[in-house]
Specification:
Strand content of chain A: under 5%
Number of helices of chain A: 5
Number of domains of chain A: 1
Bound molecules: protoporphyrin IX containing FE
Order of helices and strands of chain A: HHHEEHH
CATH class of chain B: Mainly Beta
CATH class of chain A: Mainly Alpha
Family (chain A): Belongs to the cytochrome b561 family.
Shape of chain A: elongated
CATH superfamily of chain B: Catalase core domain
Oligomer: heterodimer
Number of strands of chain A: 2
CATH topology of chain B: Catalase HpII,  Chain A, domain 1
CATH architecture of chain A: Up-down Bundle
Order of helices and strands of chain B: HHEHEEEHEEHHEEHEEEHH
Domain Cytochrome b561 bacterial/Ni-hydrogenase (chain A): 13-181
Pfam family, one (chain A): Ni_hydr_CYTB
Strand content of chain B: 15-25%
Structural class of chain A: mainly alpha
Largest sheet of chain A: 2 strands, antiparallel
Organism (chain A): Bombella favorum
Transmembrane segments (chain A): 20-39, 51-69, 89-113, 120-138, 150-170
Number of domains of chain B: 1
Distance between the termini of chain B: 95 Å
CATH architecture of chain B: Beta Barrel
Structural class of chain B: alpha+beta
């Protein structure tokens, strides 16, 4: 498939990829707000927010696994041919990083609470097994890593949204449409 | 060229740049970047720091402590109140930590400091019950705003290296709802030792039985040792309370009854500053027996967090706003201290093996 001269058209992503992209985008943005709020504000509903954070975090871990399987088995449209090479590279690198952060954040969350000796219970009472024994020093390091990863993901997402809008509004090269199913 | 990047109008560029900027700004706002006065775990940490907490691996509150291990034996009355695996009848391991409440890890033992007992009881089926109890009769704060203001009064005056008594008086005077709590604190008779002291949860919890019936309770660990009052600062030894605890444990096990005070109609469940009816039923749900002492530098209870919201099925938090607050602030303290390099605790392993008191010429 190629759309040599005709701008404004790139092949769309498969439906499942699009669905996963937008559902996860919404959930991740909610998770970032919930995480930031509960870690920096002591006044409102800490316990419920934390339960929500754990539950949606594990849901996202499942979703990212499904998404990675889909990424490697389902077809992914190529970026437009006329996209300059450095932009292509930036796009690919940033997508790899986004996947990496999406996978690492819930895993680090799980590992840190396990190392800290916290039982992990999800909304509805489901218990998640601990990944390891009691390692308080590791808990301290992983808790810090969870924040750093979250801040990194925030920067990546902001750049990613900016890039998507650049493609959609300034370049109008069809990349935005490829994730909107057009 | 098919299409080089078009020179967009400023409006188009704004549509590219503003959404991510706004989202980023909103996230920064959520993280409290623009509200430095907000009540947050890090601001609690700052208040503890000003009250003498050290960034050398110690808890930001209840910093001086010592560990003990032993057993928990539940009673049938406990089993009737809660379906938790803790009360099924098994003899369960307990890890405890005795501490002085101030944020000062090198505070010399003295009769004035509040004392505390934290415990973790675990069942073979994975139930995990953590408690953090103090020997005060009532909490001198009723909500999050009170807690934030209260810890401000604990700030050490650089001139005297002690909290300013005027600050706590002003705190109390501005809060008529804490009148009873302060009166009871004043008339509270301090015990001579850690061994014969009674420690309270102050916050309320909800027990759920097999049939789903809920019972709101407050906990107390009531010493089986007879009470005797503290008389002045009798001992010369800076660790006399902890050493006397070790000496006693070397001679015999020490027991505390875990007593649930059951709320009646009208007892405030969500306000630890208010007393409950004197005539409330008290039920002993089990007994903790401590047999062995450890320095916190050689026991997992040292690094451990005794977050009172870590509870097994069958015990849950009440809607007391201080419980959720404690969970978030303990986590912050726990994460911060766990990543620090810890200096030795004041109660050393040597104090455990040789709990000999420094003589003070008064027959001690
Ligand atoms: C809310 C605003 C968002 C917009 C407008 C947006 C837009 C897009 C667009 C247009 C693409 C297609 C790029 C291409 O053709 O290769 C894309 C891909 C992608 N997006 Fe987003 N996105 C958003 C949020 C997110 C979030 C929050 C994440 C996750 C953290 C994310 C992760 C990804 C990934 C990993 C890809 C690469 C897909 C692949 O090639 O496998 N996006 N996004
Ligand atoms: C995609 C998944 C996740 C995202 C995007 C995320 C994001 C965040 C963010 C932004 C914070 C605040 C960090 C700070 O400012 O210090 C945070 C804190 C936290 N997260 Fe996550 N997280 C995720 C998954 C998880 C999971 C699965 C768990 C646990 C099972 C978890 C446990 C925590 C904990 C314990 C905190 C600290 C809360 C506090 O300090 O009070 N997270 N997370
Ligand atoms: C009902 C009221 C409270 C009781 C009975 C209580 C009791 C205790 C006890 C016994 C400990 C020592 C635990 C141990 O040995 O590890 C402790 C630790 C601590 N308390 Fe409280 N506390 C209460 C309220 C609060 C409040 C309102 C705050 C502040 C918001 C607070 C902040 C802390 C902190 C920061 C620690 C150290 C946590 C750690 O690093 O593990 N406490 N508390």
């Amino acid at each position: 498939m190629s759309f040599p001269q005709n701008t404004g058209h790139a092949a769309p992503f498969p439906r499942l990829s699009i669905l996963l992209h937008w559902v996860m985008a919404a959930l991740i943005i909610v998770m970032l707000f919930v995480g930031l709020f509960m870690a920096h504000n002591s006044t409102v509903h800490y316990a419920s927010l934390f339960t929500l954070h754990r539950t949606v975090g594990f849901l996202l871990l499942l979703l990212v696994i499904v998404r990675l399987i889909n990424r490697f088995t389902n077809h992914t449209p190529p970026l437009p041919n006329d996209l300059p090479a450095p932009m292509k590279l930036a796009a690919h690198l940033s997508h790899i990083l986004l996947y990496g952060f999406m996978l690492a954040l819930p895993l680090v969350g799980w590992a840190m609470l396990s190392a800290g000796g916290y039982p992990i219970t999800l909304w509805g009472g489901c218990h998640i097994p601990s990944l390891m024994g009691f390692h308080p020093h590791l808990w301290g390091e992983l808790r810090c890593l969870h924040s750093l990863l979250a801040y990194g993901l925030i920067l990546l997402i902001l750049a990613h949204i900016g890039a998507a809008l650049l493609h959609g509004i300034i370049r109008r090269d069809g990349i935005m449409g490829s994730m909107l199913g057009r | 060229m098919a299409h080089s990047p078009r020179k967009g109008s400023p409006a188009r560029w704004a549509a590219v740049v503003l959404p991510p900027l706004c989202l980023g700004g909103l996230m920064a706002w959520t993280a409290g970047v623009f509200s430095p006065a907000a009540i947050s775990p890090s601001h609690f940490m700052q208040r503890f720091q000003k009250a003498g907490a050290l960034d050398r691996g110690f808890r930001r509150a209840h910093a001086k402590g010592m560990c003990a291990t032993g057993w928990f034996d539940p009673t049938p009355e406990g089993r009737a109140l809660s379906r938790s695996g803790i009360f099924k009848g098994e003899h369960l391991p307990v890890m405890g930590r005795f501490s002085l409440a101030p944020p000062l890890p090198y505070l010399p033992d003295n009769p004035a400091a509040a004392r505390s007992l934290a415990m973790q009881i675990r069942s073979s089926t994975g139930d995990d019950w953590r408690m953090a109890l103090v020997d005060a009769p009532l909490q001198v704060m009723r909500d999050i705003a009170d807690a934030f203001a209260f810890f401000k009064t604990a700030r050490l005056d650089p001139a005297t290296n002690k909290p300013d008594p005027a600050a706590i008086r002003a705190y109390a005077a501005q809060r008529p709802w804490l009148k009873t709590a302060f009166e009871q604190a004043k008339s509270h008779k301090q015990a001579s030792d850690l061994t014969n002291d009674t420690y309270n949860s102050l916050d309320s919890f909800i027990l759920t039985d097999e049939a789903g019936k809920k019972t709101p309770v407050r906990w107390a660990a009531v010493a089986q040792e007879p009470f005797s009052p503290a008389e002045g600062s009798s001992a010369n030894d800076k660790n006399y309370l902890f050493k006397r605890l070790v000496q006693t444990l070397d001679q015999r096990p020490l027991r505390w009854d875990i007593v649930a005070t059951i709320a009646r109609e009208g007892d405030p469940i969500n306000d630890p500053s208010q007393p409950w009816d004197e005539a409330d039923q008290k039920v002993t749900v089990g007994t903790v027996t401590f047999t062995k002492a450890y320095s916190e530098d050689e026991s997992p209870c040292g690094p451990m967090v005794f977050d009172p919201t870590i509870l097994p099925d069958g015990i849950s938090t009440s809607d007391d706003p201080l419980l959720a607050l404690r969970s978030s602030v303990y986590m912050k303290s726990y994460a911060t201290r766990s990543a620090e390099h810890k200096t030795p605790s004041m109660v050393t392993p040597g104090d455990i093996t040789h709990p000999t008191l420094t003589p003070d010429g008064k027959g001690q």
